[in-house]
Amino acid sequence: MSETQVNDVNSAAFKDLGKTTRAVNRAFKYIFKLIYVAAFLSLIYWCFASDRYVSEAVVLVQNTDTGGSTQSMDLLNLFSNTTGNKSDQLLLVEYLTSLDMLNKLDKEFDLRSHYSSIDHDIVSRLWDKDVSIERFFAYFKKRVFATYD
Fold it and tell me: How crowded is residue 37: how many other Cβ atoms within 10 Å of its Cβ?
């Protein structure tokens, strides 16, 4: 191999290396921009977001029959440890997240004013106090959960 051929091979290798280096630099710049934007948005949300709290309530529904009637003790009840009031408990779960319950809570505690207060952050608050009942119910369902265990 002559000296000019060696120089041509070396210059081609350096050109490819330069292209790779530029591509890596562009990728790192893009990644740093994404990290910077994510950190900036997180900082903004951290400064303006209202505090979130979790509240839990446990409700126990027991059989209220105090008469002399005894429940049948079949094999399923022995192993599942239920008292036969599953339908009552499921009805209670549905009622706690129902439109009727929302109307009662709104009447008693004025939830619309609370959720639309300007003290809450702009991302999670209810924007309009006079929003339709359907939209208010959808907003309520996003924040209130009831489960049967």
Answer: 10
For residue 127, what is the DSSP state?
S
Specify the pLDDT at position 33: 96
Angle separating helix axes 133-143 and 99-109, nearest 10 degrees: 90
Amino acid of residue 71: Q
119 part of a folded domain? yes
> Is the same domain home to 95 and 138?
yes
Find the farthest-apart pair of alpha carbons in the chain and give their distance in angstroms, rounded.
Answer: 111
Distance CA 109, CA 105 (A): 6
Residue of 63, 60, 56 whose CA lies nearest to 92: 60
pLDDT tens for 28-78 read 999 999 999 999 999 888 877 766 667 777 766 665 555 544 455 554 454
Q: Please tell me the distance from the alpha carbon of residue 79 to that of residue 56, in angstroms, as a whole number.
A: 28
Structural domain harbouring 38? 1-48
Considering the domain boundaries, does residue 65 fall inside one? no
Q: Do the beta carbons of residue 59 and residue 101 sit within 8 Å?
A: no
In terms of pTM, does the model score above 0.70?
Answer: no
